[in-house]
Design goal:
CATH class: Alpha Beta
Number of domains: 1
Structural class: alpha/beta
Largest sheet: 5 strands, mixed
Strand content: 15-25%
CATH architecture: 2-Layer Sandwich
Shape: globular
């Protein structure tokens, strides 16, 4: 019996996905998936999926955001990566950006409104939220990750030298590829051409999510925070990080 794992990253209204057989790392593939359920129902039926999307949405946001976001923000402090605050569940499910801003301000202390960047990914957040609420067993398979947390962890808890976008982009992409290879992903998978329609940075972020999924499946990933929080529906509020060499410094 094979044990497949997967990593997912949002990509232009779809999902950049990578799959790996834990018991035979020579078997893997990367593809663009229209929906999260498409990778869950794929022939590989991955037992563990790392996904770069907020899971666990509080009804009221206090003190600067979800506990997972605060933990990740503290870990990434001093680096270039950022963690945007996730608004309350009602704002995520709002029908318009204006409604989302009003609902978020009404259910947050101190009041804040989601950025337009956050609003632009709410479709993806709603997709995963609806999926996990309607099919509770999937909560054992689908887990939130943050690619820049993962890459920093793989880099010995140090900020990366280069960005993955803008000036120095190529150096940033290669820096991340090297970290993925050093983390044990098959070099042919890391070095292979990305699937059509998937951006280079999205593909590498999906591979970073794959590394975290592997460590979750093997029982060695680290939760941020520890213990995880919970929302009003029992969904975990936690960002999972790869094992690395020790406890996460904060």
């Amino acid at each position: 019996m094979t044990r497949w794992i997967a990593g997912l990253d949002g990509c232009r209204g779809a999902w950049a996905g990578t799959l790996l057989d834990l018991d035979d790392p020579g078997h893997y593939r990367a593809a663009l998936f229209a929906r999260v359920v498409d990778i869950l129902d794929a022939p590989e039926a991955p037992v563990c999926v790392g996904i770069d999307v907020p899971i666990g949405l509080p009804d009221v946001v206090e003190g600067g955001g979800r506990v997972a976001d605060r933990a990740a923000r503290a870990y990434l402090a001093g680096g270039r990566a950022s963690v945007f605050p996730v608004p309350p569940r009602a704002a995520i499910h709002a029908a318009s950006y204006e409604e989302a801003k009003a609902l978020s301000r009404a259910a947050s202390t101190p009041p804040f409104a989601p950025s337009i960047q956050c609003w632009n990914i709410t479709r993806s957040i709603r997709e995963v939220d609806d999926l996990l609420l309607s099919t509770p067993p999937l909560r054992q398979r689908v887990h939130e990750v943050h690619p820049e947390v993962a890459f920093r962890r793989l880099n010995g808890d140090r900020p990366l030298a280069f960005r993955k976008k803008g000036p120095g982009r190529q150096a940033g992409l290669e820096e991340r590829r090297a970290l993925l290879r050093e983390a044990g992903l098959p070099a042919p998978l890391v070095n292979a051409a990305r699937p059509r329609g998937v951006g280079a940075d999205d593909h590498l972020d999906a591979l970073a999510a794959l590394v975290v999924a592997r460590d979750i499946a093997l029982g060695r990933a680290i939760p941020m925070p520890d213990p995880p929080g919970r929302d009003g529906h029992g969904l975990p509020i936690v960002i999972w990080a790869p094992a690395g060499g020790g406890p996460i410094p904060c």
